[in-house]
Amino acid sequence: MNQHIELMPVDDDRNRHAREAARRRVSWPVNLSPARVSYQSDGHALILGNERDGRRAARALLARGLPPPTLVITEPLQDEAGSDTEHEALLAETADLSCQTLSRAQARAMTIEGYLGQFSVSVPDGDGSLDIARALARRAHFDLILDLGETPTLALELPPPGYVALNWQDADRDERLEALAGLIGEFDKPRYFQIDNDLCAHSSSGNTGCTRCLDVCPADAVESHQGRIEAWIEIDPFRCHGVGSCSSACPTGAIQFRLPETARQQDTLIGWLAAYREAGGTAPVVRFAETSDLEDEGEAAGHVLDVPLEELGAAGHDQWLTALAAGAAEVRIQCHARMPERLSAFIDDQLAQAHALLTALGHSPARIARLAPNDAAARDALPLEPPLTQTPPVLDGHDKRQRLNTVLEHLANLGAPDGQRHRLPAGAAYGDIAVDRDACTLCMACVSNCPTPALAAGDASPLLSFREADCVQCGLCAEACPEQAITLLPGFLADPQRQERQVRHEEDAFACIRCGKPFATVSTVETLKAKLADHPYFAGDALARLEMCEDCRVKDVWQDMARNPESQLKV
């Protein structure tokens, strides 16, 4: 244990009183009336799998009051157990069910879309597709799907509500069938997220950039929709489970978790730590945990301040670093056994980013740690080092990147940054760009496609400037550059230079040969002359029009038409 802590007496009762005082003074924000989505289910189920298990499941659902389900046989019977008498009785009890056998090819190609009350299922049929609900159940859709196949048709960590995949031999089979049978009526849940597409770094001018939200969703509820030119991100609120990782992974704040928003979480966390200190609390440890886990465990030690999250993914490394910058000695992430694999991988990635950033800024990466489920000893352990500060950063506005940069700058002032560029996990939203000055023509396509203020054009002269602190490494600038003059340089620069705007390329302006007004760069004009030299519009003396500003170029065209009307035929 660190010597600083050994010399610092820790009074657990006093810390408990300080924690309660902080909670009374600053309440954790909740949305009392969040926007919601509703499901309507009449209980019409589709059962997939082999015939024997499917008919067993159908009998069980009928016994629980559901309407007659539809049975689609997608794989042959593997288990020959059971007497002929039992099988005959099973067939007799389910003889009236609509039943269809699919070929292996049809079963492999079957698609399922939708959610509770609105499932559509189709298989290839000649040049088109066959709608299973309309063909077998005379319905527009299925309300429920029970998948008994060896390999579920929807291989998702978090399938949509109303879809249940199980093996007939599962020990919890009856409980899950009971839960499925209970999905009749009207249900609602929060609309967990809101999207501001103006902040999104996913697409611009037909180019694809950031895909971080798409990569981390365990429910596949986040989709990229392609328009005629642009693509945009949408979250299906009916399939979304509210895991929160998409919001934490979004580097620009385009996706905001509503329960509560990131900025409100940060402000409350800072307020908690300040109130805890003022009430005499010492050695504060902030633990991020899901509310349901907190309700099921005993009270933590007095110095542990629990952040109650709807979902663990709703807080990422920006929130964890905020806690340290606001005076927490350590941050602990309380994991649980129910975590989907993709969420667990996301937490590990965020931890790796946080550790790399702390190292770059001159702090111990051990200040942020992951806790295993039910590890009360690790939860209640005293921190190994004292808090970094008692003066928190001042976070203004709601811009996610700006607030994160304020936190990082505060931690840099409290540490000893080494001035070097540090490697981060692949896909981290930190880095520089390299600009090939010989290739760059300052066309500013990169600036118009950049979703943040990282790239900017000059006001009075042709130049390209860059501020690394704003760059989220989406790659849209490199994709948009017609000269392929931009290369991404990922990594975190532990130096104040990261906050400064720097000129990456600058040229003299080309003055119009008629009026003298600067209107482009020398390299741009030369490139255009080389590319358009064979164009009939610029043939002969007309090539000089490329050396004119837009006003003089139009005047020259009209004067030429007035002198030679037949020249109109060349335009």
What does this protein structure show overall?
With about 575 residues, the protein is α/β, with parallel strands linked by helices. Helices cover about 30% and strands about 20% of the residues. It is built from 19 helices and 29 strands. The strands form eleven sheets. It has a five-stranded parallel sheet with strand order 4-3-2-8-9. A four-stranded parallel sheet has the order 18-17-19-20. A three-stranded antiparallel sheet has the order 5-6-7. Helix 2 packs across helix 10 (about 260-280), helix 3 packs across helix 4 (about 85-95) and helix 12 crosses helix 13. The N and C termini lie far apart (about 80 Å). The relative contact order is 0.09. The model is unreliable at about 1-5 (pLDDT under 50).
SSE diagram, text form:
Layout (H helix, E strand, L loop, with lengths): L2 H4 L5 H14 L10 E6 L3 E5 L1 H13 L6 E4 L10 H10 L4 E4 L2 H6 L1 E3 L6 E6 L2 E4 H6 L6 E4 L15 E3 L7 H9 L3 E6 L2 E3 L7 E2 L2 E2 L3 H5 L5 E5 L4 E5 L9 H5 L5 E3 L4 H17 L6 E6 H6 L7 E6 L7 H9 L4 E5 L6 H20 L7 E4 L4 H5 L19 H15 L6 E2 L8 E5 L9 H5 L5 E3 L5 E5 L8 H5 L5 E5 L1 E2 L7 E6 L2 E3 L6 E4 H10 L18 H14 L8
Parallel strand pairs: 2-3, 2-8, 3-4, 8-9, 17-18, 17-19, 19-20
Antiparallel strand pairs: 1-10, 5-6, 6-7, 11-16, 12-13, 14-15, 21-26, 22-25, 23-24, 24-27, 28-29
Helix pairs in contact: 2-10, 3-4, 12-13, 12-15
